[in-house]
Amino acid sequence: MGDLRYAQDFNRRARTHLSIFLSRMRRKKKTTIVTFESRERLTIRRAEPQFVAWCEQCGAEVLMVSPNEAAVIGRTDARAIFRGVETGEIHFIDGERGALLVCSKSLGGE
Questions:
Q1: How far is CA 1 from CA 12, 32, 104, in A?
Q2: pTM (predicted TM-score)
Q3: Going by DSSP bridges, is the β-strand pair 51-55/60-65 parallel, antiparallel, or unpaired?
Q4: Distance in angstroms (rounded) separating the CA atoms of residues 91 and 86
Q5: Which distant-in-sequence residues (6+ apart) come within 8 Å of 64 by Cβ?
Q6: Where are the domains of the chain?
C-alpha cells in the first residue's frame, strides 16, 4: 500500500508542476497583415441634354457643366471650383438666367 500512495502523491505533484509551468509559459502572438487594392470608377449619367458651347480660352467647342458636376469630375468640392474660376485657372461662361457653366476641358476631364 505504501507504494500506491507514493505513486498517487507523485502524480499529483507532477500535475501541479506541469500546471505551474504552463501558466508561466508565454504564448506567442500571431499577427496577420492583409493588404488589398481597390479601384474606383466614376460614371456620370444625365437626364438632361449635354450643353456644348464655345470656350474663348480653349478656342474650341467644349462640354459645359455646372459647378457641382465640375467638382465631381475634378474630385474636389464646389468651393475649389469657384476659386479656380475666380483665379482664371478654370474657364467658364455665364449661361441662361445667370447660371455659371464651367468648361470641362479646363478641368482636365477631356
A1: 17, 56, 100
A2: 0.53
A3: antiparallel
A4: 9
A5: 51, 52, 53, 55, 93, 95, 101, 102, 103, 104
A6: 51-107
Residue type, 93: I
What residue has cell string 500500500? 1
User: CA–CA separation, 72 vs 83, rounded Å?
Assistant: 15
Confidence of residue 22 (pLDDT cuts 50, 70, 90): low
Task: Give the CA distances from residue 89 to residues 17, 22, 49, 102, in Å, rounded to whole numbers and listed in that order.
Answer: 78, 70, 26, 11
